[in-house]
Amino acid sequence: KKNPDFFMKDASGNALPYLDGYDVLIIKDPSTAIAAFVAGQLDLCGRCLPNGGPLVETIRKSAPKATLVKAANPGGTEIYVNNAKAPFTDPRVRRALVKGLDVAGMVQVLGKGEGLFNAAGVGIAYKEWTLPEAEFPKLYPHDIAGAQALLKEAGYDAKTPISIYTDNSSTDNVTYTELLQSQLKAIGFNAVVAPVDYADIIDRRRRGDFVLYTSGKSQEIEPDGNLYPVYHTGGSLNYSSISDPKLDQMLEQQRGLTNVAERQKLIQDIVRYIASEGLSLNPVTGQRYMYWHNYVNGYYPHLFWGYGVKLMQTWMAK
Fold first, then answer.
1. What values do phi and psi take at 257, rounded to 5?
2. In terms of Cα–Cα distance, which of 89, 101, 138, 100 is closest to 271?
C-alpha cells in the first residue's frame, strides 16, 4: 500500500508512487497465469514464463495489444562443485567435468528450444561485461575422450558414487540434474541424483555437506556481486569452498579499477578462468518472458531481484 508520507517526487514535483497499492498473486502454473491475464484479471506479470513455448503464442493471439518482452535470464542453474571434497579437490577432475559436458546439448534440450550458453556469474545477459557470445561454446568442448584421460591421470575411482543434490520442489531443477547425471556417466563419473527438500539443500550448502548440487541462482545487477562473494576465498556465498590465489588476486584487482574498459576486460578474464578450471559451473540459462496490458503506463521490468515488480512511477489508464 502507498505510504502517503513517502519522500520521493517525480520531475514535476508530484508525489510518488502514483499507485495506491498493488496485489501480488502467486500462481504456480504458467497456463493458469496466462488465462487470468487474457481475461483481464492480471494487469502485468513480472516473470510468469521462465522460457518460451506455445504459451507465448497464446498471449500474442489472445491479448494482441499487450506488451511482451523477452530477455536472457541472468541467473541460470548453478552446478556447485565442492572444491574441498574428493574427487573435486583435484583440478584435473574439475577440468574433466568441464571438458566432457555436452553443454550444446543442454542448450538444445532445456529452455523449450530457447536455451543459451552461460558461464560463471556473468553470462550473456550482462552484455558488454561478459564474453563475446561466440566464445561461450568454446569453453565447453564436449571432449569425452579428453575428459576420460584426465580422470585416468588423476586416478579417479569410478566405483565411488557421487550424489548430485537438487531441490525436489522444482521440476526444472530435477530435469536439469537428470540430464547432468546422464552426461556425467558418459564421461565416467558414477553419478546419482539425490532430490531433497529445499531446506535440506540450504543446510547442506552452508555446511559444505555435498560434492555436487544444482540450484537456480539469483543474480545481482553489478558483476562484482556475482563474483567476489561467490568465488573469492572466504566469500559470503562461496558454497563451493573455492580457494584459488590467482582468482583472488583478479577479483580484488577488478574492485579497484576505475577505467571501465580495463575492468570489463578483467571481468571477462575472470569468467574464462572460473569456467575453464571448473571451480563452479553455470553453463546454461534460458529466456525470461514478461508481459503487461497496454493500459499499464510508466512500467518496464528488470531481471534481477524483484523481477520487474518495480512500480514507483507506474500508473493505470483503464
1. -85, 130
2. 138
